[in-house]
Protein 1
Amino acid sequence: MREVLVPDIGDFKQVEVIEVLVKPGDSIANEQSLITLESDKATMEIPSPDAGVVRALKVKVGDKVSQGTPILVLDSQQAVKAEAAKPSSPPAQTAAEVDCDVVVLGAGPGGYSAAFRAADLGLKTVLVERYPTLGGVCLNVGCIPSKALLHTAAVVDAARSLAAHGIAFGEPNLDLAKLRSFKDKVVGKLTGGLAAMAKLRKVTVLQGAGSFEGRNLLAVDTQEGKKKLRFASAIIAAGSQAARLPFLPEDPRIVDSTGALELRSLPKNMLVIGGGIIGLEMGTVYSTLGTRLDVVEMLDGLMLGADRDLVAVWQKANAGRFDNVMLKTRTTKAEATQDGIRVWFDAAEPRRYDMVLVSVGRTPNGKRIAQGGARGPCRSGSGGGHEVALRCARHSFGRLYRSRDRMGRPNRGRGEKE
C-alpha cells in the first residue's frame, strides 16, 4: 500500500479539483491520469506514479490541493499479481498510414499552440483540421475579422464625432466589396503566417474531419479518402459552433456571426437575438454603416459576463444605435416573408426586420469524434459533446487530453475574460 500525493506543480497552490478520473477498485496503469486540476491560468492532469489498484480516494471534486496533498491509496502489489495471472497475448495492431507522438484535433488557437509546443519539444506532431486554413473560428470567422471591421467602424465614428469640434466631413461612400476584401486580407495574412510556422516546425497538417476508431487510432476523412493515424497521445481542441434556435426558418436573411461577417448586404434594420458581446460587436459594425438595430435578450441586462459599470457606460455611449432594447423578453416565433423576417416576442409586439442576427451562444463540436470503436458509456448516441470528447472516450481510445474549450464550462463569447 502507498499513498499517492500531489507532485510538484510549480507555483500553484490551493488548486481546485475539477474532475476525479478513477474510483476505488479501479486497476490503473503507470502514468494514468488520476485527477484534473484547474487554476486561473492552466488546467493540468496528475498522473499515477505506479500501476496498481485504487483502494481509497482522498479527494473529491471541488477540493483545493497543493503539492503533497494525498490523492488516493494505491495497492501496487495486488496489481502486479493480477497482471501476472492474466494470460499473455500480443497487443492488436491496426494498419495506419501515419504514426506520430502527438495528434491534435482542431487547429484553432488552442490546437495550433499545442501542436507547435509539442513540435518544439521534439515530438512528431500531426495537426488535423477540417477547414483549408489554420486558425479555427477565432482567426477565420471570429475574433480577428470582427476586430478588423470594428476598427473600420471606430474610425468612421471618430470622424463623425469631430463635427462637435467644428470639423465636419461628408457621409462616407461605402464599397462593401472593398470592405470585405480588407477584412479577408487581414485574415489571409495571419492564416498564411500560421501555415508557415507549422511548416517551419515540421508539423504535419491533415485537412479533414477526424474521429477515433480504436485505441490510439484516429481516422481522418480527407479529400483523397480516409487516412488512419496511430498516435501515442491526442489533444482534443475541436472548438465550437454558433448555437441555433430550432423555431427559426431557413432563410439567407437569418444569419449567425459567421454569416454577418460576410457583409453580403446592408439592411435598413436588423434584429440581434442575444445581448452578448458577439452580437453587439456585429451590431456595432452594421450600425456604423447605416443599419438601425433592435436587440432582444431573455435576461435582465446586456453583456452579463462583463462589469456592470462598464456596460452602463457602453450603453449610454451607444444608445443612439438602437430603436429598441428588449430585456427579459423571449423570441417565440419567426416567419420569412417576401418583404422581410417577421418576428414575435413574448413581451413585445411583433416586428418586421430586413435581417436577423442570431447570437445566443455557442455549442461544442465533437459529438462525432468518438463514434467508432467506443465501448460502454461512450457508444454512439450517448450525447454530451464535452464528455464524449474526454472522460469516457479515454476508456476506449487511450491517452486523450483537451484544450480549454473542451472543459464542459459555458463557451464564452469573443472578448470575454478567460
Protein 2
Amino acid sequence: MTTTYSTTNGDGLDPALVSALVAALRGLRFGSIEVVVHDSRVVQLERRERVRFADADGPRRTER
C-alpha cells in the first residue's frame, strides 16, 4: 500500500490517514507497519506481514 496523506492542519491528522492505518493494523498477527514521513508529512504506509510455520504440517495456531 503506497498512498500520500497530508495533515488537515497543524493539530490534527487526516481521517483518511487514520483509516488507512487502522486498516493496515487490522488482522496483522506477525509483521510491521512502517510510516514514512517527508517534510513533516506522512507520505507512505507499508505493511509487511509474516506467516510463521511451526513445522511442515501447516501454520501454527495460537489462542488469543
Protein 3
Amino acid sequence: MSLFLQTLVLRGILFREQEHRQERIGVAMTLWPTGRNDEKKRMKSRLATSIRSGFLRMNSGDRILVSMLVAVIVTSLSLNARAQDERAHTGGPASLILAAESASSAPRAQSDLVEFEKMTWVEVKSALAAGKTTALIYTGGVEERGPQNANGGHNLIAHATVEAIARKLGNAIFLPVLPYTPNDAESIPGTIGITNELLAAMLERIAEQAALNGFRNVILMGDHGGGQPQVYEEVAKKLDGTLSGGARVFYCDQVYRPANDAFDQYLTQHGYPLGLHGYLFDTSEMMYLDNDNTWVRRDLVSSAVGDPIVDGKAQFGPQSPQNGILGDARRSTAELGKRAFEMKVDYAVRQIRSLLPAS
C-alpha cells in the first residue's frame, strides 16, 4: 500500500475514534484539539478535502482497496460503540469476562476438596500446604453378590466410605478406589479377582506415588476380605518410613472386620438373621448408598434368600439355591444400611486418628 494510502487510513481511524470518544464521555484531553464548534468544523472540512484530493489521484486498484478499508473501519467502529454502550448500561460481556478470569485464577476453596482424581494439581498443592497431608488408599472389589445386588457393590461402598472418612478426618484426601482385590472367578459369572501378589505390588506403587506427591501419611484400607489383613499389614510394615520424605504408612483394619463384627452383633441383638455374603448387611448398605437406583434390584430383595448360615458357616445341600447369597437379605432396609455405613466410618476415623503422628 502507498504511503499516502496508509496515512489516509490512519488519520481516518484516529479521527473517527476521537470523535466517538468526545461524543460519549466529553474527554477534555484527546488526540485532537477540543476547541470551539467552528474549529471542529474547519478541521473536518480540511480532512475531507485532503481525502477527496488523495482519492482522485489514486489508481483504480487503490480506490477499490480504500473503499473496502473504509467500510471495514466504519463497521468496526459502529460495533465497538454499540458494545461499549451495552457494557455501560448492563456491565456487559467485558465485566463477565473479567469476573470469569478472576475466578479461574484463584484456586477453589480447599475445605470441600477431598477427592484426588477430581482435583487439579494446583488444588492438590494448595490442600497439602493447608495441612491435608494424609492420603487414603481404599480398595473395593468386583464379585457376584446375589440376584439383587450389582457386582461392583464393594466399589460403591468403598468410594462412599472413604469419602466420608476423609471429610470427617479433615486432613485427608482419598485416592481413586482400587476396583480389584484378591478373588477367583466362579461358576456364577460376576467375579473378577487379582492375586495377593498383584495387590501388594499395586498398594506399594500407589503408596510410593502418594509420597512423591507430597503426602506425609498413607492409610491402607479395604472393603473386601481378599488380602486382609496379611497383604495390607505386610505392605504397611515394609514401606513405613522408607518413602519419599519419610512418609508414614499404616493399615486401618477397623473399617473392615471389627466394624462388620460390631454390626453383626447389632443384628443379633435385634433379631435379624446373620449371613456371610450378599445378605442383609451389604444389601442394606447398598440400598442406603444407591441414590440413582442402579445398584440394587429392589424388586428382588423380598426373595433374596440363599444358603443358610449355622455357627458362622454356610450350609450347602441338595436344595441349595446357589445364587450368590450366603444368608438372608429379605429384611434389608436403607435405615439398616445407614447404621452399618456410619459405624464403619466411625471405626476408621478413630483408628486413623490414633495412628497418625501428633502434629
Protein 4
Amino acid sequence: MKRLLFLPLIVLLLAACSQRHDNFVLEGSFKGFSQGELYIYGVNGAWPLDTIGVAKGKFRYAVPITEPTAFVIVFPNFAELLVMGEPGADVEIEGDASHLLQTKITGTKENEALTTFRRQTAEMTPQQASEAVFNLLKEYPQAPFATYLIQRYYIQSPTPDYKRAAEIAKLITLPPPQLPNNGDLIRWLKGVDALRDGNKLPQFTATDLNGRPVSNADLKAPVNIITTWSSWNYESINLQRQLQNRFRQAGSDLRILSICVDADVKDCRRRVTRDSVKWSTVCDGRMWESPVLNALGLAFVPDNIVTDASGKILAHGLQNRDLLTKIDNLLPKKPKD
C-alpha cells in the first residue's frame, strides 16, 4: 500500500524534473544597469513579448522552450542584444550596458559564436560586417537568428543589399515559426526591387479591423506610411506609440496604415482599442500568409514603406529613428504663430 502511495509522488517528481530540464535559463549582469526592466521577445514570434527584472545589477530569466529559439533583449535606450536559447541550456551574460557590442555570452556554441561576431563587427566597416554575417550564416545555416541578421544587415541598412540577402536566404533551412516560409522569403527578396525609391507603390486591397476596405486610394496625403507590427515585437509596438504623436500633430498631412501579423485578430483589436490607434489597422489572422503582405512585398516585423501623394515610394525598410526623422523632414512646415 505504501508503495502505491509513493508512486504518484515519484511520477510528479519525475515530471517536474523533466519540465526543469526543458527550461532555458538566462542569467547574468550588466555594469551600469543596476535596477529596472528589460524587454525580451522571440524572433518572428517564436516567444511572446516579456520582461526581465534587474535588481542590484543582476537578473535571471527562465522559460520552458521545446526547440532552439532566437531571443532579442531590448534595453531602455532601445539597443538590442541577440541571444540563442535552447531547451535545458543555462546561458550566462556578462557585459557593460554602455558597450553592448562587447557583451560576453556563454553556455552554448551558438552564443559563443555570436559573441565573437559582435566583438569583431564592432571594429568593421558596414561592408566588412556584411561579409561577416554571410560567413556566420554559412557556418550556422539552421540557426533561428538568421532572419534577424538578414533584416538588420541587409534590409534595414542605409544601403540595402537585397541581392546578397537573397543569396543568404538560400542557405538557411528553418521551419516555422522561426522563418515564415523560406521559399516565400527568397521570392520576396528577388522581387523587392519593386519597392525601390522612386517606384510606384504596388496595388493592394485589404479590409481593416472595422470592416472598412482600404487600398492605394486611401494613401493620398503628402506623407503616407505603411508599417508592420506584432504583439511579440517590442520595436514595432514602440514605433506604433511614437507614430501616434506624429499623427495627432500632422492632421491631414499624414496617413498611416498598419498591418498586424498576429494570429489572434481579437487580441489585435483589443490592443488597438487600448492604445487608441486612430488610423486603419489590417489583421486577418493569416500572419505571413496575409495577401496584403504579399502584395506589398513586406516580409519582416517591423517593416515600413513611405510614399507621397502620388504613390511614389520615398523610402522602404527604415529603422525606427530614421523613419521618424524622414516623416519630420517630409511633413509640410506649419507656420509659426
